[in-house]
Design a protein that fits this description.
Keywords: Signal. This protein is of the alpha+beta class. It contains seven helices and 13 strands. The longest helix is centred in the middle third of the chain and has 14 residues.
Length: about 240
């Protein structure tokens, strides 16, 4: 991906990630096929209501467990075809809000790169977001590093294998990045993450290198780069009437 070392409430976030404050969500079944992300960003600082997005997700059978929020951002992650159907409906649902489609990941790790290729039947997803720096040359450097990471920095992928990460995807739209880390359902990311760097110091080298390419979104605290997109507490919804 990836994410460089970042401080967030005393924690480091990187590829070796030390991710504190992760809140588990209901599990999702192991996905099949391509995935995508849609983000809705409000014009002000007031959080956007999620009701319309949840209704669209239910209508198009997108798992609402992966509807997330950070400040005035709403995000939904799911199967690409269904996410695109939701995306088409959002322009009229959220007025002047900005709607962005992250149509495909530019980076993907999965268990096929591990010696132990077994995958869990159910996953918990962690979603985070950050910006690339404004310098176009550095943006291209960042993408080039990721295009050759598995060949030139194999220790990073091995760290993900060691930590039992099931999948790791990084999406991009303009400068903004969306990161999805999938772990076995019920696992504790705070416990898994240190395994990415255990006896694997080159992951720390990678994190230090990536730090120069990333910065926080508007609204982040000084020194904060990657932020967690928090699950939306969902009430039981009545069945939709078509």
């Amino acid at each position: 991906m990836s994410v460089s070392i970042v401080k967030r409430a005393g924690a480091r976030l990187g590829l070796g990630l030390v991710l504190l404050g992760f809140r588990a969500t209901p599990a999702v079944a192991q996905p099949t096929g391509p995935a995508a992300v849609v983000e809705i960003t409000g014009t002000g600082t007031t959080p956007l209501p999620a009701d319309k997005l949840l209704q669209l997700c239910r209508k198009y059978q997108v798992p609402t467990v992966d509807v997330r929020r950070w400040q005035n951002h709403l995000v939904i992650y799911g199967p690409a075809e269904k996410i695109r159907q939701v995306h088409k409906q959002l322009g009229t649902s959220y007025g002047k809000a900005t709607v962005k489609l992250y149509s495909a990941p530019f980076y993907k790790f999965d268990r096929q790169r591990c010696t132990d290729k077994a995958v869990s039947k159910q996953w918990d997803n962690v979603l985070l977001t950050a910006n690339l720096v404004r310098d176009p040359a550095k943006q291209q450097e960042y993408l080039a590093y990721h295009a050759t990471q598995f060949q030139k920095w194999p220790e990073v992928g091995q760290g993900f294998c060691n930590a039992s990460f099931q999948q790791l995807l990084v999406f991009r739209n303009g400068r903004q990045l969306m990161l999805v880390i999938s772990i076995p359902h019920g696992a504790n990311l705070d416990e898994l993450n240190p395994k990415t760097t255990l006896n694997n110091p080159r992951v720390d080298d990678w994190n230090a290198l990536m730090k120069q390419y990333q910065e926080g979104l508007p609204g982040t605290k000084p020194g904060e780069v990657w932020v967690f997109l928090q699950p939306i507490a969902m009430k039981k919804q009545p069945a939709l009437q078509d």
